[in-house]
Write a structure and sequence with these properties.
single chain, mainly beta, 22-stranded antiparallel β-barrel, five-stranded mixed beta sheet, 14 helices
Length: 924
């Protein structure tokens, strides 16, 4: 019996030991709870994660005294002594003194200190996201070194790193939770339209250079990673609400609203889930630039062939004998859109850990929808568009396998230029308008004796408004131009934007899809000599625009790509020298396979190994996009023709010859043109324009462009990243890129009759009669293009908790103009940029602030829509915030472009005005 009681007492003692519980709360410097912090017993695997209130409970069999480690990304880890059973611990984490010890993954697909990254990398952590002075964390990325924004509209912003980028930046890749959020149809990122809520964002990592060796063909000039929070680590309900005002000279003052909610719960060590919802609405940065697109007179009163930048419908132009080139009257952009912008985003994810360890299964669905404006070859109103992504992923410490699908629906989207053209045509055909103009112009001079200026005024008033104040007995060939605000205009507008036939309407259809699968395995736990990893990917594009964008009028067009890579990483010289070598092979269905090697060295000098020198060399390539290959889009003033061989004959259009052209023996009334005319029987636009002014046949240049193929880059980079004087962060880098087979577009004129190679005389008559068609074609330059740039960034705590930072970037490019005089670079990047930040997250108890300033010099903007100069600009953003720990809340007041004038980043887009916001965030 005594033995039994002794054994029983030992049993209960063991239970007592097992139920030794530690609990407590983890907060930040402002007293706000820190969720997702790791709490573990030193020397044991026992651990816990703080909840949304910063609270935790941890059971251990260990008896006091022992130590507990508390850590979280962006904070200095703390060790706390436990001296009694069931002790309550309250820990206030201190933000890290420097960002240079942060851990990044994207540079090598493996965790490493940012100091040891083999290539230039920029990062935003939770602290940076919370303290941004911009409207959102995505806009806040514009303050990162190497980043320049191209703003098409309030909610459509494109990231530009190292140049050669329009709004459609197909040289840059953007991943949200490791899913490429590029448009399946056009292959460029859609900003943050289908991104991550600021409540759910965990970190942002950006590689500004070529990254094809690990991430494939699309990561040609940079790649962005936006990573969300895991519901196992970050639980609770969070909420934000923003309200404010936008102010712009063209649009005036308007309200702006944005709110979001996040709910996450770890129901057990095996199962967790989260959901996010955000909604934003406001008034667009209105585009109202009336300057002539060619830089001539800015109205029809002084320029008969006026083509206003944000006036549409005046692209309809014709040559009138004895008069010259004439264009129709158009409509302002404000007549074609209500300028209302909204964005709704939602995502749902289930996370399963079958064995309650690092092995995890993720099921996720994301959806984004709304209204915005995109500027490409025209200005497009994306109305009620929807984009969805669905992902399944299996991952562990050393592996991942994932697959996802992206699909988009253009909704009720339409082309504003085609809308204006076809509203005009509902009243009067182009032939009817130009006939009326020419008749009044010539007869008023012949019979009334008026001069040219008076004749032009009479002719335009008659052709556009059917007003004839003269005694001339004329009959109009249609109705007067429809006036905005009238029932007739509204009926015509609604009819045109719902008609997908671009000859009569402007609606474009798009139900394209993208399927992607990739996987990776790291052998670090199996092979100790070095760290080896291998991976691969597969992707299929399915274009489905029903002939409104691509030549898929008879059914969807699809093609696929695949690739595989390997990487080895090894440290030498007492772990001071790190070598990384990788190679990737990619194959697209329509092109030959490509190898992309990368070699880099990082040397860590100094006692603490915190003075890091790096060098890298890599090659990259970019496959032609779906647009480069299969587009067949007639936007009125010109047509875009992709150069896949089968695409050239799939696209066709019918054009009517001028009366002079029809009078030439053997010529029909109409001709049918296709892609073969554009690529094989055409002159460059620049040479035709010059010939028209000089009459010298020698000025004409036959277009000799080949079909588009992959472009190549060789990228060299050196850098230095260090911590000096304890808290001075230094980040220096320089790069030199060599591009071959540089993919670009060109404009050509194809004659309706004649042959530029065998019957130039007839082709010259076509030019003289303006019987020529402008095409935009896709090809590669035969000249070598180089780009060079360098950057310097410094950050320091200047006094107590005051932090200051400054960075500078230089960028330029060069090419041989003699080898390719018609080359268009689309570099679209300032040569000089300076960015400054100053702030204090704890100026006094619960109060912080942050200031940002950006400056860039003027630069040339080139695009298929319009070319022009972007003026130099200085922009100031600021925010102040106050934490209320008792309400688990932060109140923030922020302003963007404070005190500045409206400015542009894209020629032809709306000017960016000022924006003021007050926000309230619960459980940030």
């Amino acid at each position: 019996m005594k033995v039994y009681l002794f054994i029983l007492s030992l049993f209960f003692c063991s239970i007592s030991f097992a139920q030794n519980t530690i609990s407590g709360t983890v907060t930040d410097g402002n007293g706000l709870p820190v969720s997702g912090a790791s709490v573990s017993v030193v020397g044991e695997s026992t651990g816990s994660i703080t909840d949304a209130d910063g609270k935790f409970a941890l059971k251990t069999s260990k008896q006091p005294p022992y130590s507990v480690l508390v850590s979280n990304v962006g904070f200095t880890s703390q060790t706390v002594q436990v001296t009694s059973s069931n002790q309550k611990i309250n820990v206030s984490l201190v933000e890290e003194e420097t960002k240079l010890n942060e851990i990044v993954i994207s540079a090598s697909r493996t965790p490493e200190r940012i100091l040891e990254s083999p290539v230039t990398i920029e990062r935003m952590g939770i602290k940076d996201i919370k303290n941004t002075s911009s409207v959102s964390y995505y806009e806040g990325m514009e303050n990162l070194k190497e980043v320049h924004f191209n703003t098409s509209s309030m909610s459509f912003k494109s990231i530009n790193t190292r140049g050669f980028a329009t709004i459609a930046n197909t040289r840059f890749m953007q991943l949200t939770d490791n899913m490429d959020n590029s448009s399946p149809a056009l292959n460029f990122p859609l900003g943050n339209l289908v991104g991550i809520s600021e409540l759910d964002i965990q970190s942002v990592e950006l590689l500004p250079g070529a990254s094809s060796a690990l991430y494939g063909a699309n990561a040609f000039n940079g790649i962005l990673f936006m990573n969300s929070k895991n519901p196992f680590n970050s639980e609770g309900i969070s909420f934000y609400y923003k309200y404010g005002q936008t102010s712009q000279k063209v649009a005036g003052n308007h309200s702006y609203t944005d709110f979001g909610i996040r709910a996450a719960k770890a129901f057990s060590p095996y199962f967790a889930a989260k959901a996010n919802f955000t909604y934003m609405e406001g008034t667009e940065w209105a585009a109202g630039d009336a300057r002539d697109i060619k830089g001539n007179g800015d109205s029809h009163a002084v320029n008969r062939n006026y083509d206003g930048l944000n006036i549409y419908g005046d692209e309809a132009t014709n040559f009138v004998n004895n008069v010259g080139q004439i264009s129709r009257d158009g409509y302002a952009e404000s007549d074609l859109t209500d300028n209302k912008v909204n964005s709704l985003k939602a995502d749902f994810a289930i996370h399963i850990r079958p064995w309650a360890n690092e092995n995890e299964i993720i099921l996720q669905h994301k959806v984004g929808m709304g209204n915005t404006i995109y500027q490409g070859a025209s200005r497009y109103m994306l109305k009620n568009f929807v984009m969805q992504q669905t992902r399944i992923e299996f991952k562990g410490r050393n592996y991942f396998v994932r697959g996802y699908m992206t699909k988009e629906d253009a909704g009720d989207s339409y082309d504003m230029q085609s809308t204006a053209l076809n509203i005009n045509r509902r009243a009067k055909s182009d032939i009817g308008w130009f006939t009326d103009y020419a008749t009044m112009y010539l007869q008023s001079q012949i019979f009334l004796g008026v001069n040219g200026v008076q004749a032009d005024g009479l002719a335009r008033n008659w052709a556009t408004n059917n007003i004839n104040p003269t005694p001339l007995p004329l009959t109009a060939h249609g109705s007067a131009q429809l006036q905005p605000g009238t029932a007739a205009y509204r009926n015509a507008f609604n009819s045109v934007i719902t008609d997908p036939n671009l000859a009569t309407g402007s609606k474009f259809l798009d139900n394209s899809k993208l399927y992607h699968a990739d996987g990776n395995y790291n052998f670090r736990d199996l092979l100790k000599f070095a760290e080896f990893q291998v991976g691969g990917s597969y992707r299929k594009y399915i274009m489905d625009s029903q002939g409104t964008i691509f030549t898929d009028f008879d059914g969807p067009i699809d093609y696929d790509e695949y690739g595989a890579y390997g990487q080895v990483q090894k440290k030498f010289l007492d772990d001071r020298l790190k070598f990384t070598g990788s190679v990737r092979y990619d194959k697209s269905q329509n092109f030959d396979g490509q190898f992309s090697p990368r070699v880099s060295f990082v040397y860590s000098a100094g006692k603490d190994k915190n003075r890091n020198f790096r060098f890298s060399y890599q090659t990259g390539f970019r496959n032609p996009t779906t647009q480069d290959q299969y587009i067949g889009l007639n936007i009125g003033s010109f047509a875009l023709i992709g150069s896949a061989p089968e695409n050239l004959t799939r696209y066709s259009e019918v054009q009517t010859l001028s009366l002079a052209g029809q009078a030439i023996a053997g010529n029909p009334e109409t001709v049918t043109l296709n892609g073969l005319n554009a690529y094989n029987n055409s002159y460059t636009v620049a040479s035709v324009d010059k010939y028209k002014s000089t009459g010298n046949v020698a000025d004409l240049e036959v277009s000799k462009l080949g079909y588009v193929k992959p472009e190549q880059v060789k990228a060299f980079e050196v850098g230095y990243k260090s911590i000096l004087l304890k808290d001075l962060g230094v980040d220096l880098n320089a790069y030199y890129n060599i591009y071959n087979d540089f993919a670009t577009t060109a404009r050509v004129y194809a004659p309706y009759y004649g042959d530029v190679n065998t019957n130039q005389a007839l082709a010259l008559q076509a030019i003289g009669n303006n019987d020529i068609r402008k095409f935009q074609v896709y090809s590669n330059s035969n000249t070598e293009v180089t780009s060079f740039g360098f950057g310097a960034g410094f950050s320091k705590k200047v006094y107590k908790n005051f932090e200051a930072g400054i960075n500078y970037n230089f960028a330029e490019f060069n090419y041989d103009k003699e080898k390719d005089p018609s080359f268009v670079s689309y570099f679209n990047t300032p040569k000089h940029r300076v960015k400054v930040s100053f702030g204090n997250s704890s100026l006094f108890k619960n109060f912080g602030f942050n200031l940002n300033a950006r400056w860039n010099d003027e630069y040339l903007w080139q695009s298929s829509f319009a070319d022009g100069t972007i003026p130099s600009v200085t922009v100031f953003d600021a925010q102040v915030n106050y934490a209320i720990p008792s309400l688990k809340s932060v109140i923030k007041v922020s302003g963007s472009n404070i005190g500045g004038n409206d400015y542009i980043q894209v020629f032809g887009a709306g000017r960016i005005g000022q924006q003021w916001l007050v926000s309230w965030t619960i459980n940030p």
